[in-house]
Design a protein that fits this description.
Length: 268
């Protein structure tokens, strides 16, 4: 349980959902957690209260990640509180669904600002304070590589974030800093649980494991990437989706064709 002992982890968007699950798991493994929030102060306070009640260390930090000044101030405040940062988890993100033909420049900018620009600026601001041998982890999405209509701007932002992570991994390797991505599949959180439960007959046939993922499963992958166990892992994206993107989505055929006779197979 001491996997992250005495390490300081900054997690953005940690007032609920996957970010809150990450914060609780990291604290369970004895990390000191900087819990970032923007709109859900009550949720962030609840996460910190739970961590402290369980004997851990955590503190809330407010910042509007659309502002470069706010990002820089966030880093200053975390360093003032904890002296150093060992791991940055860029978890905060927004999903705004619209067809590309209807995507205004304002909507495009909103999505790219939070999902791509903010992780770049925050990683850049954290870098001088990041302990050698530390790590940066970006929360991306299965949409980075396998998307659907209505997700154009979101998919583009997550694909670009995975490319950014690869370059960061190359440029920062000399300091032993590792940069990786976690790409979650369909994972119910507070604001989506009811809708996903209602739509389970539509979703679950597309997930080979036959169920939705959990916040804890995404948090576990993130914890592993942040730990010394993943010391030789960098520049990678890890899909955690129950096999959803591994399949070719085509009609199921009940009858399986028999294998061809040996003499009918052409040799190459």
């Amino acid at each position: 349980m001491a996997e992250m002992n005495e390490k300081v982890v900054l997690i953005t968007g940690a007032s609920g959902g996957i970010g809150a699950g990450m914060a609780r798991l990291f604290a369970k493994h004895r990390a000191t957690v900087a819990v970032h929030y923007r709109t859900r102060e009550e949720g962030a306070n609840k996460v910190v209260d739970d961590i402290i009640a369980a004997g851990g260390q955590a503190k809330t930090f407010y910042a509007d990640l659309r502002s470069e000044k706010a990002i820089n101030r966030l880093v200053v405040e975390v360093i003032k509180a904890f002296d150093v940062i060992d791991c940055l988890v860029n978890n905060a993100g927004i999903v705004l669904k619209t067809y590309l033909k209807d995507t205004s420049s304002e909507l495009w900018d909103d999505i790219l600002n939070i999902n791509l620009r903010a992780p770049h600026l925050l990683s850049q601001a954290v870098l001088p304070h990041l302990r050698d041998g530390g790590s940066v982890i970006h929360n991306t999405s299965i949409h980075a590589k396998n998307s659907v209509p209505n997700f154009g701007a979101y998919a583009a932002s997550k694909a670009a974030l995975e490319s950014l992570a690869q370059v960061q991994a190359l440029e920062w390797a000399e300091r032993g800093i590792r940069v990786n991505c976690v790409a979650p599949g369909v994972v119910p959180v507070e604001r989506t649980t009811e809708a996903l439960q209602a739509a389970s007959k539509d979703w679950l046939p597309h997930i080979p494991r036959g169920r939705y993922g959990t916040v804890e499963e995404i948090a576990e992958m993130t914890l592993w990437l942040a730990s010394d166990r993943a010391g030789w892992v960098t520049g990678q994206s890890f899909v955690v989706d129950g096999g959803m993107t591994a399949r070719i989505d085509m009609p199921k055929r009940d009858r399986i064709a028999p294998p061809p006779a040996p003499d009918s197979i052409n040799e190459h």
